[in-house]
Amino acid sequence: MPKVYFVIPCYNEEEVLEETMKRLRNKLDQLMADGKATPDSRMLFVDDGSKDRTWAIIEEKSQQDTLIGGVKLSRNRGHQNALLSGLMTAQQHGCDCVISLDADLQDDIEVIDEFIDKYMEGCEVVYGVRNSRKKDTFFKRTTAQGYYKFMKMLGVDIVYNHADYRLLGSKALEALSEYREVNLFLRGIVPLIGYRSDYVYYERQERFAGESKYPLKKMIRFAIDGITSFSVKPLKLISNLGIIMCVLSLIGFIYALVSYFMGVAQSGWASTICSIWFIGGLQMLCIGIVGSYVGKIYSEVKQRPRYRIEKELIAPENTHKDAAAE
Q: Are 97 and 2 in contact (CB under 8 A)?
């Protein structure tokens, strides 16, 4: 029977947090009753520098129920760093496996039994994979599917339609702790760990309450981080593009010379300006891509800590206060 930890990163989730705690507590009770989780299992909520009452709720509920734990980061460090801090804290407390999920109740917690069943069968990594995107808007569905295909094309080993709903066993957690990247993209790192893995398919739900904490701007930044953290193909593409442009320029130069000596050359202000603007824009784009990689190198070589824990509230083992079903 495994010691299971749920790790839930939270950022300004006061509207949904109490309901999330209630549902996860019921699920944890069911797992313990079915012999799939020990009484020392925990729910670990990570406050990623929230500006609302998120931490106050976590603190209050942790005092009422020993199965609820909390980690408060000293400042907002982003979803991936908050998630990693929770995973590493769970590892330090000797969990056998950890299941990470979002606080908005969109991940179907009813399939958690399947996660643990596959872990009991020997899987160290179990991915929660959406079986459809029917509830997404057309824009989000199209861009998400395009992004996964683009990542595959760039050679990045990433699980299609998988976010951060997954189970990691103790061996996988130990392996994950050895990855020291400052620019975290766990969806790309976890498949690199290896070990036996499997998939659990589920239907993603609507948010119970509140608004998404991942607006378009953050999603674009997250997508770019994923690409530049795991593939150098954009740099190779720039080199190939440069060669192609040089060849086209040479062809254009030869054509201009032939036209001049044949007496059919015509002066064209528009074509000249368009070509200058095109080449100039292309150069700026290439410099920007190279700059993204240089910026990541700059972040990595400084080796600054990825997060700092301000407070940690986890009840000692073998102390079980049954009060969370409120």
A: yes
